[in-house]
Amino acid sequence: MIFFDNAATTRPYTEVLRTYQEVAEKIFGNPSSLHRLGSQSTRILEASRKQIADLIEVSSDEIFFTSGGTEADNWAIKGIAFEKRQYGKHILVSAIEHPAVKASAKWLTKQGFEVDEIPVTKEGFVDVEAFKQLLRQDTILVSVMAVNNEIGSVQPLEAIATVLKDKPTVSFHVDAVQAIGKIKVEDFLLDRVDFASFSSHKFHGVRGVGFLYKKAGKKISPLLSGGGQESDLRSTTENLAGIAATAKALRLTLDKAEVAHHKMAKMKQVILSELEQRDDILIFSGTERFTPNIITFGIKGVRGEVVVHAFEEHDIFISTTSACSSKAGSPAGTLIAMGIPVKDAQTAVRISLDDDNDMGQVEQFLTIFKQIYDKTKKVRR
């Protein structure tokens, strides 16, 4: 089996699963309980929080655990909006955000907020000049992802942060779900960033765990009320085993990030070089200002899902676009926002590499690609 769908999810590291099992079996007390087992769980919880904070160079009291990236995004968008609504009701999100952000923003319009989308260039980068024009006196929130999940474009966060430098009343949220291990932490967790969302299973952790970075002093309304966990901002009993596993996964991923980056970049270049030699191939992902792990392309005239299933017959797993929307059968929202014609966007498939992959798998992928490409000759326009 060749798994080239790592932007959808990654295989948990063996060490991560070992940590999960050990904590689940031995440290099973509720961290909110007063007895010894509860105190033991609290120590593991806070040690994991500190390890995560240290790894991304923030303070422990700035890390809040969630059930994943979707919850972290929902909490950030809705929680900031309701916390700051007395100061304004205007929100800006980029046109290529993950559905967790865009759907949350759309929901807010039904609650009386006004949302504008920041357009992107034809290459898939937020248009900073257009962003400047969209900012208003009553803007309270700007949300822009660090790395686009569909094509891998690294967004100009530093330029956006510069625009917001003299606008302290505007909260800046970054969806960093696809960033860990792909770009340097300091390149997306900038001083001007107030909130950032993360998801464990994107960096070899387990599903159902994520966290939100909230800069000290910044306020956010809770989505969940109840037992008062997470400093009374996110009530529900913490997934202790998953959180401990997340801390382990983050350390292992960042420890090998530089080596993994070079490895993925080489594999990506080999695949791109082959694609570029073929007629009727549309390439939507570049190399400059793109992550080393994502390649999005299409075979003209062939729908993406057809190509996905053709590879699956050879035990090679890729995807159309975002895993969260691929089953809907709609073209990649990012490509449409870039101005790509619908008929071309519908051909898009995404390869997403990982350090787990190797050049032998790339060679096998390309062998099968050539077979599939040749078989599509009659339907290519």
TrEMBL record:
PANTHER family membership = CYSTEINE DESULFURASE ISCS 2-RELATED, CYSTEINE DESULFURYLASE FAMILY MEMBER
Q: Which SUPFAM superfamilies match?
A: PLP-dependent transferases (SSF53383)
- Single annotated GO MF: cysteine desulfurase activity
What UniProt keywords apply to this chain's record, in alphabetical order?
Answer: Iron, Iron-sulfur, Metal-binding, Pyridoxal phosphate, Transferase
- What family does this chain come from, according to its entry? Belongs to the class-V pyridoxal-phosphate-dependent aminotransferase family. NifS/IscS subfamily.
Q: What is this protein called?
A: Cysteine desulfurase
Query: Recorded E.C. number(s)?
Result: 2.8.1.7
Q: Name one Pfam family in it.
A: Aminotran_5
Which coenzymes or cofactors are required? pyridoxal 5'-phosphate
Q: Where is the Aminotransferase class V domain?
A: 2-365
